[in-house]
Amino acid sequence: MSSAFRKAAKSGQRPHRERAQPAARRRLGLLEKKKDYRLRADDYHKKQNALRALQKKALDKNPDEFYFKMIRSELQDGVHTIKQPKDEVTPEQAKLMKTQDIKYVEMKRVAEAKKIERLKSELHLLDAEGKNPNKHVFFFDTKKEVQEFDIATHLDTLPELVGRVYNRPTIATLQKETLKGATEPAHLKKLAQQRKNQYDLLKQRIEREKAMFVVAQKIQTRKDLLDKTHKVKVKKETTSSPAIYKFKFQRKR
Which InterPro entries would you find in this protein's record (predicted)? Predict the structure, then answer.
């Protein structure tokens, strides 16, 4: 007889034995021991006591009490998160940052302006779409001269070259030299497409330069608003122009 049975026999208590699982649950092992039940019971009572303490704290709380965490926290997708405070900057630091922004935008705008001038010098605005066509007016004394007028003869060039607004040589020049440049229709079409692409690029750069100029003005306006001078808004801000404010005159030392 084991010592456990001897002690149980002396005290008159029934000895504790591990109970086996049923055949269908035998793979799960033996049933829990008595000490495991005590651990679970202690953990349960500990959690219940914590919940009672929290309930008591909630009942004793002043409903008018305020603390900053109330406005610095929020629920995002069911998760409680704390808002991160924004970086605080002084007015002088804000002005300096605005100045740096203006310098950067102005630098990019000047670079675009230089590229625009370079493209204009290369293209000379030849056959640009949307450009007002140049007019060449001829004056005559009688209607008969108007009816007999031949522009090719008057310009001393070939009829095929009358439609050109540039590189239109005279007959005398053609007799001395051969016609330079492309003459085949396919080649001329390709050159026209390339010229159109260049004009489209020029148009985009001009619009970008204008947009940067507006951005620089808006940044400058926001920088001026950092001053504590009394001001009145005269015109609202639009996509193509900054807001206009009227500032109270203040004499500087």
Answer: SSU_processome_Utp11 (IPR007144)
